[in-house]
Amino acid sequence: MNKINIAIDGPAAAGKSTIAKLVAQHFNMIYVDTGAMYRAITLFYIQENSEDFDELVKKINLEIILKDGQRVNLNGEDVTERIRENDVTEKVSYVASKEPVRTFLVEEQQKLANQKNVVMDGRDVGTTVLPDAELKIYMIASVEERANRRFKDNELRGIKSDIESLKTDIERRDQYDMNREISPLVKAEDAISIDTTGLSIDEVTNKIIELANVKLTK
């Protein structure tokens, strides 16, 4: 069978990470969560309290451990859980819009995908990071559905939140991500759209597996 890269893009809380992990597990491929990488830099931005992004990225030692899931080490510290907290979530779209941050992380992400056999999810994977990916998926879902998913996820992580605030935050992030100057959130021309509203995790996963099987056996 051929080796392929699978790019999964879409707005916040569309279910990208959950689905991407399952697709990667099915094919024994490597899963790369680009959002976690941006969250790690956002955490460092909060810690440093500096708007000099050129200098911030120079101080960062970011290690992505692709074994038994994805762990994120920031300057020697495992921050995998910390980067999911509300203060990081509120600022990640802003930090991700900065050119030094995107340049730094796109290079890191492309290195991870060099040998193919990667499932990568994010906002600009199919358009900027892996424009030659053999399969591109663009996942969407209603704001209400995404807010409910984020609420349940926060509950599991012990993070306090409420549905209305989450809706507001998701709408704000959509506007920011879609209208930013550098690598805005857009559907790649050759991406296949999947609206996950009302669909189960298994239904979405199976759809992508079917599409990937076609690419793998060509």
Automatic annotation (TrEMBL):
The record's Gene Ontology cellular component field reads:
cytosol
Q: Where is the Cytidylate kinase domain?
A: 6-212
Entry's Gene Ontology BP terms: nucleobase-containing small molecule interconversion; pyrimidine nucleotide metabolic process
Tell me what reaction this enzyme catalyses.
dCMP + ATP = dCDP + ADP; CMP + ATP = CDP + ADP
Please indicate which superkingdom the organism of origin belongs to: Bacteria
Subcellular localization: Cytoplasm
Q: What is its main location?
A: cytoplasm
EC id: 2.7.4.25
Q: Where does ATP bind?
A: G10, P11, A12, A13, A14, G15, K16, S17, T18
CDD domains linked to this entry: CMPK
Q: Which UniProt keywords apply?
A: ATP-binding, Cytoplasm, Kinase, Nucleotide-binding, Transferase
* UniProt family annotation: Belongs to the cytidylate kinase family. Type 1 subfamily.
Name recorded for this polypeptide: Cytidylate kinase
Q: What species is given as this protein's source?
A: Mammaliicoccus stepanovicii
